[in-house]
């Protein structure tokens, strides 16, 4: 009787643990879907507003922006169907997004994407880097007279994947606290996704870029 009770209890506990783990996974997925649905319309509405002004003023540029928007949306749709994507797909989506932004900002925005061949198939959360790039443009490049540059780099560091978004914009405010950095939507979005998927095995750091700008 004792043996039967022991094995029944152990089996029951294992079932409860498995159910709890499954519920946690579904909760994390629901959270990611919510975050993605909040982020994508923001970028889409801004782009459509820019397109509206370009249609009459510069039809050729408008057509080019539409082409880039199609590329971006196709990639975003593919990413929305999965929690993860490859760095190759992530960088292709970033290229389309940055091209759209450069059409609007002209010479005020310069960008560079650096993805080594060996890391192209590395797996990352879908739509992870765009909030950081969008943040750099909104808070760093756009408000700065003369604009600036953005560089997105992927590298392998001590066996881990390191993704870097550096800009030469206005930089961090003087009272920036690295331990309690900005609560802007883009940063909260990235931190929540990293926490949901990797727990303590991933982190986001925000610091000053030299000689000017911000480094994420």
A few lines on this structure:
With 216 residues, the chain is of the alpha+beta class.
List key phrases describing it.
elongated, 7 strands, five-stranded mixed β-sheet, single chain, 57% helix, alpha+beta, 216 residues
Structure write-up:
The chain is built from five helices and seven strands; from the N terminus they run ααβαββαββαββ. It is an alpha+beta fold and 216 residues long. It has helices at residues 2-57, 59-80, 87-105, 130-141, 185-198; strands spanning 84-86, 109-114, 123-125, 148-157, 160-167, 207-208, 214-215. Helix 2 (59-80) runs antiparallel to helix 3 (87-105). Helix content is 57%, strand content 16%. The strands form two sheets. Strands 2-4-5-7-6 form a five-stranded mixed sheet, with helices on one face. A two-stranded antiparallel sheet has the order 1-3. The termini are far apart.
Shape by Cα distribution: elongated
Helix-strand pattern: HHEHEEHEEHEE
Given as residue ranges, the uncertain stretches (5+ residues, pLDDT < 50) are none
The average pLDDT value, as a whole number, equals 81
Fraction in helix: 55-70%
Strand order of the largest sheet: 2-4-5-7-6
Cα distance spanning the termini: 60 Å
How many whole angstroms does the radius of gyration measure? Answer: 21 Å
> Approximately how much beta-strand content do the residues carry?
15-25%
Instruction: Let me know the largest β-sheet.
Output: 5 strands, mixed
Number of helices: 5
Structural class: alpha+beta
Please tally the β strands and state the result: 7
């Amino acid at each position: 009787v004792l043996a039967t009770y022991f094995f029944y209890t152990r089996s029951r506990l294992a079932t409860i643990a498995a159910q709890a783990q499954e519920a946690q996974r579904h909760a994390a997925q629901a959270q990611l879907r919510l975050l993605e649905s909040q982020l994508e319309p923001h970028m889409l509405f801004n782009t459509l507003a820019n397109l509206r002004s370009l249609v009459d003023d510069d039809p050729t540029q408008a057509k080019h922006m539409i082409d880039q928007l199609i590329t971006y949306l196709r990639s975003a749709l593919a990413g929305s169907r999965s929690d993860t994507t490859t760095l190759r797909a992530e960088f292709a989506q970033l290229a389309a997004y940055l091209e759209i932004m450069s059409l609007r900002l002209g010479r005020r925005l310069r960008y560079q994407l650096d993805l080594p061949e060996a890391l192209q198939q590395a797996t990352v959360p879908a739509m992870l880097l765009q909030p950081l790039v969008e943040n750099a443009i909104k808070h760093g490049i756009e408000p700065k007279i003369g604009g600036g540059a953005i560089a997105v780099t992927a590298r392998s560091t001590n066996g881990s994947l390191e993704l870097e978004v550096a800009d030469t914009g206005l930089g961090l405010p003087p009272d920036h606290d690295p331990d309690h950095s900005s609560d802007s939507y883009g940063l909260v979005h990235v931190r929540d996704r990293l926490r949901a998927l990797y727990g303590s095995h991933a982190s986001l750091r925000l610091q000053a870029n030299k000689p000017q700008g911000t480094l994420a």
